[in-house]
């Protein structure tokens, strides 16, 4: 088929988007239109890579002040809590999930210190490890206060990493279409977006597949933004301004209940009850889908900043079992930055259905 777009090598002749780097062998697939091309699509292009290593810090210069020309980033007037330096350079890195804020590194010539900006410098070791005095891991009020500080934008929803949004929606779209191939398949009448934020997933995924989409979101300004941006979609149903732990609309039936990057904010007993409630809200052949971060080991990681937990996948499956749910499809999100937690999509049905 003849190309629709006249482009230079390295760009997709089908849709015009930039192509991903060519691997050592095999073809290349466009991220946007998923069209596959032979390596010759790159023509005679040459690619060079340069690896930059961090400088080795001389500990003998412990008390030397940071020089802006020698620093690894912008320099600010801030006293180092460890060595007493009055100047520090800083950089940010996305260590947590895509919908969380970035971590800030502050650097002096003598120490590399990991400082979470919102944390108090005098917190105890138990608090640093994610444990509070009462032993709880999730505090709803604290989580609510955290999200009140986040801007109602796509960048805010994705923790300053909006570029993962396209990859996220692309993978979710493929996963959802696979579910429609099940026999019997879920209907396409009504879906529920849990922890919807400003409606990013509803707008770019669910409203492309369902007649009506309802949203649950505990932050009022996010709800208002969602109502405004989705008002003319023709698919917006109810917007419930409530936390998942308190949601209970037994009169509505759904074909798909989609929960993404929100269940870490729900205490385990409440999460089990939430699953049991929405299971009763499913239409015949209805499916519950979860897209969440999971730890790489068997430890639960607690984030004291936004009062959330990242659970091991094995433990999460035990929660599903207690919730009387069985997994019918499971897939890992690909092409996300390696610094993020592994992200999996799980489709479940109630065991008695």
From TrEMBL:
GO cellular component term of the entry, any: cytoplasm
Keywords of the record: Metal-binding, Methyltransferase, S-adenosyl-L-methionine, Transferase, Zinc, Zinc-finger
The keyword Kinase is annotated on this UniProt entry: no
Domain annotation TFIIS-type: ranges: 76-113
GO MF annotations, alphabetized: N-terminal protein N-methyltransferase activity; nucleic acid binding; zinc ion binding
InterPro entries with a match to the protein in the record: MeTrfase_NTM1, SAM-dependent_MTases_sf, Zn_ribbon_RPA12_C, Znf_TFIIS
Substrates-to-products reaction catalysed: N-terminal L-prolyl-L-prolyl-L-lysyl-[protein] + 2 S-adenosyl-L-methionine = N-terminal N,N-dimethyl-L-prolyl-L-prolyl-L-lysyl-[protein] + 2 S-adenosyl-L-homocysteine + 2 H(+); N-terminal L-alanyl-L-prolyl-L-lysyl-[protein] + 3 S-adenosyl-L-methionine = N-terminal N,N,N-trimethyl-L-alanyl-L-prolyl-L-lysyl-[protein] + 3 S-adenosyl-L-homocysteine + 3 H(+); N-terminal L-seryl-L-prolyl-L-lysyl-[protein] + 3 S-adenosyl-L-methionine = N-terminal N,N,N-trimethyl-L-seryl-L-prolyl-L-lysyl-[protein] + 3 S-adenosyl-L-homocysteine + 3 H(+)
The keyword rRNA processing belongs to this UniProt entry's keyword annotation: no
EC number annotated for this UniProt entry: 2.1.1.244
Similarity comment: family membership: Belongs to the methyltransferase superfamily. NTM1 family.
Function: Core component of RNA polymerase I (Pol I), a DNA-dependent RNA polymerase which synthesizes ribosomal RNA precursors using the four ribonucleoside triphosphates as substrates. Can mediate Pol I proofreading of the nascent RNA transcript. Anchors into the Pol I active site to monitor transcription fidelity and cleave mis-incorporated 5'-ribonucleotides.
Name of protein: Alpha N-terminal protein methyltransferase 1
Taxon lineage: Eukaryota, Metazoa, Ecdysozoa, Arthropoda, Hexapoda
């Amino acid at each position: 088929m003849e190309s629709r777009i006249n482009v230079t090598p390295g760009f997709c002749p089908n849709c015009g988007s930039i192509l991903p780097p060519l691997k050592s062998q095999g073809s290349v697939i466009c991220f946007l239109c998923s069209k596959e091309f032979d390596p010759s699509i790159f023509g005679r292009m040459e690619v060079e890579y340069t690896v930059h290593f961090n400088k080795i810090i001389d500990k003998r210069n412990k008390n030397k002040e940071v020089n802006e020309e020698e620093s690894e980033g912008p320099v600010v007037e801030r006293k180092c809590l460890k060595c007493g330096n009055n100047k520090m350079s800083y950089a940010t890195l996305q260590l947590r999930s895509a919908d969380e804020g970035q971590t800030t590194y502050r650097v002096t010539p003598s120490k590399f210190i990991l400082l979470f900006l919102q944390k108090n410098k005098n917190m105890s070791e138990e608090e640093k490890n994610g444990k509070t005095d009462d032993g709880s891991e999730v505090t709803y009020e604290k989580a609510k206060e955290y999200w009140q500080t986040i801007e109602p934008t796509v960048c805010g929803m994705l923790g300053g990493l909006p570029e993962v949004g396209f990859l996220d929606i692309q993978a979710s779209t493929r996963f959802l279409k696979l579910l429609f191939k099940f026999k019997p398949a879920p209907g396409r009448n009504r879906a529920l977006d849990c922890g919807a934020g400003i409606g990013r997933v509803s707008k770019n995924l669910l409203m492309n597949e369902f007649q009506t989409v309802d949203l649950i979101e505990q932050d009022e300004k996010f709800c208002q933004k969602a109502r405004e941006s989705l008002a003319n979609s023709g698919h917006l149903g109810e917007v419930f301004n409530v936390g998942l732990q308190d949601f209970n609309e037994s009169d509505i039936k759904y074909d798909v209940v989609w929960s993404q990057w929100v269940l870490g904010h729900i205490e385990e007993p409440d999460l089990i009850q939430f699953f049991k409630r929405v299971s009763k809200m499913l239409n015949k052949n209805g499916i519950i889908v979860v897209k969440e971060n999971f730890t790489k080991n068997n430890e639960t990681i607690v984030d004291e900043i936004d009062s959330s937990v990242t659970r091991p996948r094995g433990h999460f499956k035990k929660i599903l079992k207690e919730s009387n749910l069985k997994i019918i499809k499971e897939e890992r999100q690909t092409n996300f930055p390696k610094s993020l937690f592994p992200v999996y999509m799980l489709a479940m049905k109630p065991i008695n259905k």
